[in-house]
């Protein structure tokens, strides 16, 4: 996979996935102060060659156009949307001066030609999960890189230097996990973070949508789940329309939306609207009135899951659904005489991990029947569940991490790493450096094993974040993860990263994202709210 | 000092400083669900007695009025401003229904009578530093308490229960330190935090306005200080008009503004605009081109300080100025041959602490001549500087804290405690509990020594906060400090505090302050930005 973003008169864009090129009219040389070697590029592209030849961009004459021969044209709405978005990032509220279609001046970059050379010209599709499909997402990352090359000279004139960029991501799966159960996140907050994800070339929104504390997903099939299980049945739910909007907003930025409906644990809120779904816990020989994980011994449980995951498979277009499967507490199952009896009858004895596996195994079948792939947390693999070949194992435990990565990949499963990137764990100082230094392939695997590690995710669990503080807590700390997952393995210079990331965070601030500061500093345009 | 906020027909307000009372027309008993014993009161008043008799408040007929015989009337602008502010907090964007001056219904609270019984009726004054003067600030805290007693019943009707509150602060000095040098804070952010301070009954804004990284204070006398020393001479400065507005905004909320101009260390930014102010450091026998603390051996230094602090004394109406005096690095002084020669000539030998004291001693004289009191960080006391009797020592070092508190108060100096409340040090989880548990009088002092501890300050140093994240990082963590400094010493029940603080933080959110969550939870009205 190779993508080129080339611009200078004489450079030709040759790209497997996609290329953008620009054509300038004249090329009078202007020297500029470059600051850090790579300016404000974040994440760092795979190959960067910057010259000192600079061109100005005029808000009145600059154009982004589909190159001749491009497989995508004006009818490709995701491209047209992206053109508008990046024009606005570049020129903001620029007032028109003079004629709009005036002739370009000397030393001016008048046009960015975007040439899509992949065969896929279906611009109404959703970003795909495989590496071939992920080429589509390069539409956006190329434009992002272009926009990062534009700077203001000392007179405030937008400028860009003649440069050659060849780019592609090191890992195909670059995700952010947000948790909308522990605190409800207004749609506005989710959209803002999708914007920020695009600026950092993340391409997967792992939506941990429901959990113990609340069930904000409004299900058409089982509306009582959110009516009873949400913090509030109207103000704290995601309606089908909300979900559709979030998915479309993400699609327009090349971002997949992978929903997680975590079971059999983490389901307290499910029990409020769905009778008999959870296991009744016992105190001695009588029910205590509390409930445990999903009850795995009732047929009604699987009837329910069948219908729910059928709906989910229709609501969420992504090829994958995350089934959770983490942190199942066995105490309630142990206390329940019906569970014990069933386990005896089915020869499971006292092995509750086997009971959990029994449940997950059936759920995996239900999901496979909807033609979706399954992502699961590592415990499901650890417990010996027979996983489908296309299952993706999400490794999240810090202890024994390298062994786990080895084992999962040795078993031939695709793996996503989250363990080093639990961004809800805050500490004083520049903890982004710790996230930056984490290396996904830092375990003793073969080349074949390494290839199974398709990426990672930065996770911001919701205990301590809501709409008041989520965005500045996530950015630019997640940006560090973004570069680790995108750039070449040897991009590890922490000082160079600091310089680029400081500028990148000010760029996010200028674009309206309240990304917090790395350290004592200032931005030319401080965040002023909105 | 005693202030009473009493409301119920038969209760009579008797208060030394101030009293508010209300009069209701009828008093039909309505039972309400009280939740936590003290509802959402924060900080907890000194005496609270809540009944189950409830009254409704109507946005169209409810009035806040000056009681008969009150020493403050309609011409008192701070009171009128406060009435408007609290009316808006209570009723938000309530649409008028029916006639505005309709007759109050049964079970309705129609009027809050505010009776000011202190002699001081000068509503144009600034909040004072002494305990007598601080009675004025009770105008606001009484209204805040009243507003905290109002709740919405299940039909959304504003209601209040008949209650008796007697209230006064345990400590008279309850401050928040914000640092506008490491990151510039837009005025909007400072004002929002002054609002939040009032909601938490803080009454001192300790404005650490300049420091090494930048000098945003625009001095009329020495404009080059900010022209050269600010991050940007126009966009990152506080003009005289800005400062005046901030002081007035604070005054209208009973908040003092104590500016800190920290010297002789922490002054790198000063050197950019003021030639010869800082000590040239030497590398061997030649100047290295870098600079150290303020140069204490030049007369020009004191001429400069004389003029600057004269201006400061005029710009800032508060009775105190904070002179800093912390963390002076002696290395540069040690390297400089002129300093060494001068010390030899003046019999200081190699005792650089004495040199620092020489400087501070002269500065204290300069400030005393402007009729202002001085606050200083603890090192000034530790170094044996002869302090004026009214100096206030600010204790900030965590190690040896109890000994320091003992020594400062044993020497007869008024003390303010900041050490346990450095809120820039973040950690995972509910660190507000640590701040809450810190007890200012937790050292073995006599009663007389205890009385010298007039309060404390929550400090949010600026390395890692700016306008993107400051407000949610400060609140409600600083609220924990607020209750410790306001409420009785035995108010230490962490579960009760959690319950009240959770509601208080949602109230702050509803009032537009993005106060972050304590833990997994929801607010009826989530923060939606603005």
From TrEMBL, chains A, B:
Residues 41-122 form the Beta-hexosaminidase eukaryotic type N-terminal domain. Keywords: Cytoplasmic vesicle, Disulfide bond, Glycoprotein, Glycosidase, Hydrolase, Lipid metabolism, Lysosome, Signal. GO terms for molecular function: beta-N-acetylhexosaminidase activity. Disulfide bonds join 76-123, 281-332, 506-523. Belongs to the glycosyl hydrolase 20 family. The gene is HEXB. There are 3 forms of beta-hexosaminidase: hexosaminidase A is a heterodimer composed of one subunit alpha and one subunit beta (chain A and B); hexosaminidase B is a homodimer of two beta subunits (two chains A and B); hexosaminidase S is a homodimer of two alpha subunits. The composition of the dimer (isozyme A versus isozyme S) has a significant effect on the substrate specificity of the alpha subunit active site. The keyword Secreted does not apply. Its EC number is 3.2.1.52. One of its GO terms (cellular component) is cortical granule. GO terms for biological process: carbohydrate metabolic process; ganglioside catabolic process; glycosaminoglycan metabolic process. Hydrolyzes the non-reducing end N-acetyl-D-hexosamine and/or sulfated N-acetyl-D-hexosamine of glycoconjugates, such as the oligosaccharide moieties from proteins and neutral glycolipids, or from certain mucopolysaccharides. The isozyme B does not hydrolyze each of these substrates, however hydrolyzes efficiently neutral oligosaccharide. Only the isozyme A is responsible for the degradation of GM2 gangliosides in the presence of GM2A. During fertilization is responsible, at least in part, for the zona block to polyspermy. The keyword Disulfide bond applies. The active site is at 327 (proton donor). Residues 1-19 form the signal peptide. It catalyses: N-acetyl-beta-D-galactosaminyl-(1->4)-beta-D-3-sulfogalactosyl-(1->4)-beta-D-glucosyl-(1<->1')-ceramide + H2O = a beta-D-3-sulfogalactosyl-(1->4)-beta-D-glucosyl-(1<->1')-ceramide + N-acetyl-beta-D-galactosamine; beta-D-GalNAc-(1->4)-alpha-L-IdoA-(1->3)-beta-D-GalNAc-4-sulfate-(1->4)-alpha-L-IdoA-(1->3)-D-GalNAc-4-sulfate + H2O = alpha-L-IdoA-(1->3)-beta-D-GalNAc-4-sulfate-(1->4)-alpha-L-IdoA-(1->3)-D-GalNAc-4-sulfate + N-acetyl-D-galactosamine; a ganglioside GM2 + H2O = a ganglioside GM3 + N-acetyl-beta-D-galactosamine; a ganglioside GM2 (d18:1(4E)) + H2O = a ganglioside GM3 (d18:1(4E)) + N-acetyl-beta-D-galactosamine. It comes from Gadus morhua (Atlantic cod). This is Beta-hexosaminidase. Its main location: cytoplasm. It is found in: Cytoplasmic vesicle, Secretory vesicle, Cortical granule; Lysosome. Residues 171-488 form the Glycoside hydrolase family 20 catalytic domain.
């Amino acid at each position: 996979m190779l993508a080129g973003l080339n611009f200078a008169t004489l450079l030709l864009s040759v790209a497997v996935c996609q290329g953008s090129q620009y054509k300038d009219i004249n090329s009078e040389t202007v020297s500029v102060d470059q600051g850090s070697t790579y300016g404000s590029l974040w994440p760092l592209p795979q190959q960067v060659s910057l010259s000192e030849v600079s061109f100005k961009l005029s808000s009145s004459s600059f154009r982004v156009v589909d190159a001749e021969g491009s497989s995508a044209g004006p009818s490709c709405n995701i491209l047209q949307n992206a053109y508008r978005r990046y024009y606005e990032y570049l020129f903001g509220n620029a007032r028109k001066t003079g004629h709009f279609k005036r002739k370009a001046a000397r030393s001016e970059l008048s046009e960015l030609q975007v040439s899509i050379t992949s065969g896929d010209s279906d611009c109404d599709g959703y970003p795909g999960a495989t590496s071939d499909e992920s080429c589509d997402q390069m539409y956006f990352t190329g434009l992002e890189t272009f926009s990062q090359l534009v700077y203001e000279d000392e007179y405030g004139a937008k400028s860009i230097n003649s440069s050659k960029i060849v780019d592609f991501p090191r890992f195909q799966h670059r995700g952010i996990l947000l948790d909308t159960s522990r605190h409800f996140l207004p749609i506005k907050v989710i959209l803002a973070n999708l914007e920020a994800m695009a600026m950092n070339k993340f391409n997967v929104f792992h939506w941990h949508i429901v959990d113990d504390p609340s069930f904000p997903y409004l299900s058409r099939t089982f509306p009582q789940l959110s009516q009873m299980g949400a913090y509030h049945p109207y103000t704290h739910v995601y309606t089908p329309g909300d979900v559709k909007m979030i998915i479309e907003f993400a699609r327009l930025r090349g971002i997949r939306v992978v929903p997680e409906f975590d079971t059999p644990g983490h389901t307290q809120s499910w029990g409020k609207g769905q009778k008999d779904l959870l296991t009744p816990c016992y105190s001695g020989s009588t029910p205590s009135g509390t409930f445990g994980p999903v009850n795995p011994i009732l047929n009604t449980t699987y009837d329910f899951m069948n219908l729910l995951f059928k709906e989910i498979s229709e609501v969420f277009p992504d090829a994958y659904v995350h089934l959770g499967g983490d942190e199942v507490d066995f105490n309630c199952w142990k206390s329940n005489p019906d569970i014990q009896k069933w386990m005896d009858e089915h020869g499971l004895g006292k092995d509750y991990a086997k009971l959990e596996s029994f449940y997950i195994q059936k759920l995996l079948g239900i999901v496979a029947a909807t033609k979706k792939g399954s992502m699961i947390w590592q415990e499901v693999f650890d417990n010996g569940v027979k996983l489908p070949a296309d299952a993706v194992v999400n490794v999240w435990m810090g202890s024994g991490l390298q062994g786990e990565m080895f084992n999962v990949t040795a078993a031939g499963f695709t793996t996503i790493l989250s363990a080093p990137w639990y961004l809800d764990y805050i500490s004083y100082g520049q903890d982004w450096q710790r996230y930056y230094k984490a290396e996904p392939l830092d375990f003793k695997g073969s080349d074949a094993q390494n290839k199974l590690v398709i990426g990672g995710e930065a996770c911001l669990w919701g205990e301590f974040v809501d709409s008041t503080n989520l965005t500045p807590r996530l950015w630019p700390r997640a940006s560090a993860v973004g570069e680790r997952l995108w750039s070449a393995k040897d991009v590890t210079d922490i000082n160079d990263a600091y310089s680029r990331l400081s500028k990148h965070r000010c760029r996010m601030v200028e674009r309206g994202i309240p990304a917090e500061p790395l350290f004592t500093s200032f931005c030319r345009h401080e965040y002023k709210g909105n």
